Amino acid sequence: MSAQRPLVLVDDDKEDQELLLLVLRELGFDHEIKLFNTAEAALNFLYESGDRPFMIVSDINMPRMDGITFKKKIESCKILQPRHIPFVFLSTSAKFVAQTGGLNIQGYFQKGNSWQELRETVEVILRYWQRTQHTASN
């Protein structure tokens, strides 16, 4: 992989952030990673930067603004929506899946209960988005 557009990672859990960063390094992911503890901070970055990220990977269950609201704000924004940024939910719980109906998300994945499960899940996500052609590829 060559260094390209950044991956935006949004998760309020420090331990999960660290695990995800370790998995990404182990998999040889060389894109810049923009890490955010809150959806608000990630949204501000997206508004202020001219970057069109490689992908957004977001937790769902976060304080103040959850991942579903975060995605809705992206979809309703005249600045962000045309960027067609691939968006994937990566969460510990499947109970929120029903609430994501109608959103333009490219996947919902559970983090899993082990390092190996998390690694395999992240690897599947990355392989797909590195190989696919989509409107944000250009």
How would you describe the oligomerization state of the chains in this entry?
single chain
Report the strand count: 5
Strand sequence of the main sheet, in spatial order?
2-1-3-4-5
The largest sheet is:
5 strands, parallel
Tally of discrete structural domains: 1
CATH architecture: 3-Layer(aba) Sandwich
Strand coverage percent: 15-25%
Basic shape: globular
Radius of gyration: 14 Å
CATH superfamily: Response regulator
Mean pLDDT reading: 86
End-to-end C-alpha gap = 16 Å
DSSP helix fraction: 25-40%
Task: Count helical runs.
Answer: 4
List the helices and strands and how they pair.
Layout: E1 7-10, H1 14-26, E2 33-36, H2 39-48, E3 55-58, H3 67-76, E4 87-91, E5 107-110, H4 115-131
Parallel strand pairs: 1-2, 1-3, 3-4, 4-5
Helix pairs in contact: 1-4
Task: Label this structure with key terms.
single chain; 138 residues; alpha/beta; Rossmann fold; five-stranded parallel sheet; 4 helices; 5 strands; 36% helix; globular
What would your notes on this structure say?
- There is one protein chain.
- By secondary structure, this protein is an alpha/beta fold.
- It has a single domain, classed as Rossmann fold (3-Layer(aba) Sandwich), CATH 3.40.50.
- It has four helices and five strands; from the N terminus they run βαβαβαββα.
- It has helices at residues 14-26, 39-48, 67-76, 115-131, and strands spanning 7-10, 33-36, 55-58, 87-91, 107-110.
- A five-stranded parallel sheet has the order 2-1-3-4-5.
- The mean pLDDT is 86.
